[in-house]
Amino acid sequence: MSVAWDSSDLDLAELVDLIVECFDEESDSAKISGSENVRRFEQLMPILVERIEEDLIEYNISSNHIQSELREFLDGLKTEAEPGEYFSENFEEFKQQIRAIKSEDYTIAFPLNLNFSPGRKRGEFSALGYRIERVPRREWISQFEEVAEETEEEKHQRPSDDPFSRFMTESPNEFSRNYTYWKFNIEARDQDFAIDQLEIVLEYLLGKLNFAAHSGTTEGISIDNSFWPSGWSDLKLPFIYFVFEGDEYTQFYYSEDFTPRDKFSVHSIRRSQFDRYLDEFPEPEQPYNELEETFVNAVRTFQTAISEPNREDSFLEYWRCAEQLTLADEDDDMKTVIQRAAAPLEHENPELFRFRLQRAREKRNKLVHEGPDVSIDKEDQNRLKSVLDHLIDLYIEKFDDWNTKDFEFYLDNVGVDAGNLKQKRSELFDQIEILEEAIEAKEYEPEGLEKILLDWARHENELEGAEFLDPLGFYIPVFGVGDDDAELMVIDRSPVYPLGEDTDPIRERSRVRGPRPNITEWSLEGLREFNTSLVRDGNMDGIWDVLRGIAETAECDAEDIYIIPLFKKMGDSMNLRK
């Protein structure tokens, strides 16, 4: 029977134990032998890396490099009796191993098919806390393009062995004057991280640029003489990157999307909208909170959708973006996505947008379950993109004011009937008033005699084995209510519970119940005629401390306050002690 190694039920220690078992016990080079061990290692190692990646985010290291370092570290745990427990308890050792890797300054240069009108050129962009600087074409040629070309030629004796030369020959793209050229600087522990981070930044930046340029538009009839398929937008990730470590060229990377990067520019009638969205678009920085992570991922997905040349793949990416922006999780069904996505559009034409989303849902399900036989046309994409335009615009408007729960609450309620919303609002206002009263009671600070007596009650509640006759009862609130002319109250027995616990009582206390006089307005004479407490087997030192405080407030002796009218009424002849 095969074991589900990737089960989410495995905790960190169990994962480590299973991985360490894969290493050859006799080898000192992290060797793994046997197909079963190799299979298990390849399945479990990425899961472990994913579990610990967040704790290593500050070190700017790629997942591949983490896995390489982790393999070496785990191989060293073979002699531990419980390697999983050791790893969990000594994770700082592995972090020290990562910190010991020297960081390097990387510069990555690349072309973008982004073109500006005269007088509207931009020297840099910012995205996700990083800057991307524009490079003049002459500098691009002399400092990047020619350096990469010459270095690659030196590495390979024959032109046919030169991967850079071969790639440029086969690619439909070249370093055109219609392109603009850019560089990105980052400190990292390996160049894979630098490239990965740049692609995340560019996906967000290009998603922002594409939204700013295309929001509110639909894809119409186009005439394209090229046999290359094209997406809604031609603005997409670079076709090539040159990586420099310090001043030294190290490597080039190329995109697996080999389609042409045709010139992209913003139409003159949309420049005002374009500039406005660039100014308003959120710019979160790591570490992201929940809302920021949701929005960053959604914008990156939007970029993939709008630039994807395959219409079916593009449609599925648009739908995935809708799922992200409507905060749908694995427990939500398709109807939740439709209801939330259509909600912001209810004021325009609710039936129309629900129809559009319902049809998009049906197409999505057919595409997933029936495959290539299902066709997606421009209208299918237009319907879905129009919904995303409104959702992204909502996020931009409320990004600084709402959190994830606020967006979810709004999307769940904005489509509800106005009468039901008013009723819900009334109920919420009632609950707010109750909460305000509860907060006021929690934050209430008594003063003067009231504070002294309340402190006494709190002191009394801490005593175990004592029995009190408590005329105040010390229910909260007890002060400021009642009748000055109230008769002395009936005495009975009440259980005393530990503070904050609903368990068996720790003792019984004699408590006075009935109408409560407003003791805060009593005169000294009133105090003398009202016995504040009678204690059997209690801590008299604490009681007398309180009585002395009351006496000081009333400018009299403590003995004058502690009198016995109540005793006489009860027929109690017990002696008083100081």
TrEMBL record:
<feature type="region of interest" description="Disordered">
    <location>
        <begin position="148"/>
        <end position="167"/>
    </location>
</feature>
<keyword id="KW-0614">Plasmid</keyword>
<feature type="coiled-coil region">
    <location>
        <begin position="418"/>
        <end position="445"/>
    </location>
</feature>
<protein>
    <recommendedName>
        <fullName>Apea-like HEPN domain-containing protein</fullName>
    </recommendedName>
</protein>
<keyword id="KW-0175">Coiled coil</keyword>
<feature type="compositionally biased region" description="Basic and acidic residues">
    <location>
        <begin position="153"/>
        <end position="164"/>
    </location>
</feature>
